[in-house]
Design a protein that fits this description.
Helix content is 49%, strand content 3%. By secondary structure, the protein is mostly helical.
C-alpha cells in the first residue's frame, strides 16, 4: 500500500511538471492587455491570428464547443467553463499570432457611458459597431455554418440605466453583497454578461453563435478578469 501511494505521488508529480501552467505559453508568462492599449502591430497580429484560426478550422471549433456547452449557462459552472475555454482559445491564438503576449480584453469600465462608441470598434480594429454584416478588418468573416457574421446593436438596452459591477475603489462593497459563489456567478451572468451580448447584438446576441464575433473573446476576457476578483473573495 505504501509503495502504491508513493508511486501515485511520483506519477502525479511527473504529470504536473510536464504540463505548463495555463498562464504560460512558449515559456513566457502571458500578459493580457486592454485592446485599446495595443500597438498597431499587435492589433494587426490579433486580426491575423483570428483569420489564421478561421482558415485552420480552429475558430469554428470554438463556436461549436461553446454551443455544446450552453447547458452550463445559468449554473455555477458558467465561469469555470468559460475560463477553461478562454485559456484554450488563447493558447491557439498565441500559436497563430506568437508576437502577442496574451489574449487582449475590452476594458468595459472605460466605455460604460456609451459602449457602442468604443474606440475598439472601428474599421481598423474590431470592425464598426453598426447593424449588418461585420465590416472593416473582419469583413467577410463567417460563422461555423458559413453565414456572414453580423452585428445589431440594441439601442433600447443603452436607453436603460446600466451599471457594471462597481469598479476598483468600491469593488470590496460589491463583494460583500455576494454571500455565496452561486449568487456572485448569477449576478455576473445576468448583468453585465447578458447586457453586453445584447449591446453588440447580431451573432453576439445569440449564445449559439456569439463566439463567431471577435468581440466575444475580448469581452469575455474582461468578464472573467472581474469574475476572478470576486471569486477570490467569495470562496
Amino acid at each position: 500500500m505504501k509503495f502504491s501511494i508513493l508511486l501515485f505521488v511520483a506519477l502525479t508529480a511527473v504529470i504536473v511538471n510536464a504540463a505548463p501552467p495555463a498562464d504560460v505559453c512558449n515559456g513566457k508568462l502571458r500578459q493580457r492587455k486592454a485592446y485599446s492599449t495595443l500597438s498597431l502591430a499587435d492589433k494587426k497580429a490579433f486580426a491575423d491570428g483570428i483569420w489564421a484560426m478561421k482558415r485552420s478550422g480552429k475558430y469554428d471549433y470554438f463556436t461549436k464547443k461553446h454551443r455544446s456547452a450552453l447547458r452550463w449557462h445559468q449554473t455555477t459552472h458558467f465561469l469555470p467553463m468559460h475560463r477553461a475555454m478562454m485559456t484554450e482559445f488563447e493558447t491557439e491564438l498565441l500559436k497563430a499570432a506568437p508576437t502577442l503576449s496574451g489574449l487582449p480584453f475590452w476594458d468595459e469600465f472605460s466605455d460604460l457611458t456609451n459602449p457602442t462608441q468604443s474606440p475598439i470598434f472601428t474599421a481598423t480594429t474590431l470592425g464598426p459597431m453598426a447593424s449588418g454584416p461585420i465590416s472593416g478588418t473582419f469583413k467577410g468573416l463567417t460563422d461555423d455554418r458559413n453565414a456572414i457574421v453580423e452585428r445589431d446593436p440594441d439601442q433600447s438596452v443603452m436607453a436603460r440605466a446600466f451599471k457594471w459591477i462597481p469598479r476598483n475603489q468600491v469593488l470590496a462593497k460589491a463583494i460583500a453583497t455576494f454571500p455565496t459563489y452561486g449568487e456572485m456567478s448569477h449576478a455576473i451572468e445576468s448583468t453585465p454578461h447578458g447586457t453586453f451580448h445584447l449591446i453588440v447584438g447580431g451573432h453576439m446576441g445569440d449564445p449559439s453563435t456569439s463566439p463567431s464575433d471577435p468581440a466575444f473573446w475580448v469581452f469575455f476576457m474582461f468578464l472573467l478578469h472581474q469574475g476572478n476578483h470576486l471569486t477570490h473573495n467569495t470562496i
